[in-house]
Write a structure and sequence with these properties.
Elements: H1 6-14, E1 20-24, H2 30-37, E2 43-48, H3 51-63, E3 70-74, E4 88-95, H4 96-105, H5 107-110, E5 115-122, H6 124-133, E6 136-146, E7 149-158, H7 178-182, H8 188-206, H9 212-229
Parallel strand pairs: 1-2, 1-4, 2-3, 4-5
Antiparallel strand pairs: 5-7, 6-7
The structure holds S-adenosylmethionine.
S-adenosylmethionine (SAM) binds next to β2 and β4.
């Protein structure tokens, strides 16, 4: 049994029901091992661009006796896979802009997946906007908290049109997920309150600077989402 923190548990849960999964940027290999030991997955391909990081995955696979069901592959993003080789993939713990680059570079692989699970460490707004503008359907968009830090995890699937924008969700808002809002995810009000507080604090020092307009717009969006969530049970 591999113990996972709430962030990796969230990704693990999103990947249940898939037989063949890729763990891209596998590093410590915990997700790879958990999918095979704790979950329903029969085969995992772990990829990483760094030989040292991939070696950590390989060692965990060996310690867990999973060599017959897990493969490690050195390379960038989804280039380590052939189209259709896995029916789902996780790309966790990288920047959102890099994720966009990886998806664009391997669109033939990415678009054939039944589910992609993405957890950006930064650039979440750029990633969300790119997914929306390129007709990726957001299946779920969840918040996971580890200690004081929040993580956002999206599961997506290529579609042939953009998602419908939920009523009451601010236009052009990528800070939090429109699916998070539409699904009334329980962590959303607390997350928005924290984010609003941070922006209000930053705004006190940003009056008259180039950053003022963006902070004001984001604070306004967060206030509007919070107002909408007031009626949630
Ligand atoms: C912060 S670790 C995240 C590890 C694990 N996915 C997690 O979320 O706990 C980022 C990993 O992504 C790998 N990485 C960075 N760029 C990559 C790329 N273009 N393709 C594959 N792996 C990459 C790094 O080598 C590192 O192992």
């Amino acid at each position: 049994m591999i113990r996972l923190d709430p962030r990796l548990t969230c990704a693990f849960n999103m990947l249940q029901g898939f037989d063949s999964v890729a763990d891209i940027g596998s590093d410590h290999g915990k997700l790879t091992a958990a999918l095979l030991l704790n979950g329903s997955c029969s085969r995992v391909i772990a990829g990483d661009i760094s030989p040292e990081c991939l070696e950590k995955t390989r060692q965990l696979i060996d310690r867990c006796g999973l060599r017959d069901r897990a493969q490690v592959r050195l390379g960038s993003g989804l280039t380590v896979l052939a189209p259709g080789e896995c029916n789902a993939a996780a790309i966790l713990g990288m920047g959102g802009e890099l994720m966009v680059e990886l998806l664009e570079a391997s669109s033939d692989v990415a678009e054939r997946m039944d589910k992609l699970v993405l957890q950006p460490m930064s650039g979440i707004e750029e990633l969300r906007q790119w997914l929306y503008e390129n007709d990726w359907h957001v299946l779920s968009d969840k918040l996971a908290r580890v200690g004081k830090r929040w993580y956002q995890l999206l599961s997506v699937q290529k579609a042939d049109r953009a998602d419908a924008w939920p009523d009451g969700f601010p236009a052009d808002c990528w800070l939090v997920g429109y699916r998070t809002f539409a699904d009334r995810e329980t962590g959303l009000p607390a997350y928005c309150r924290e984010q609003l507080h941070k922006r209000q604090e930053r705004l006190t020092k940003a009056i008259g600077t180039a950053g003022e307009e963006k902070l004001t717009r984001e604070a306004d969006q967060l206030e509007r989402i919070l107002k909408e969530t007031e009626g949630w049970n």
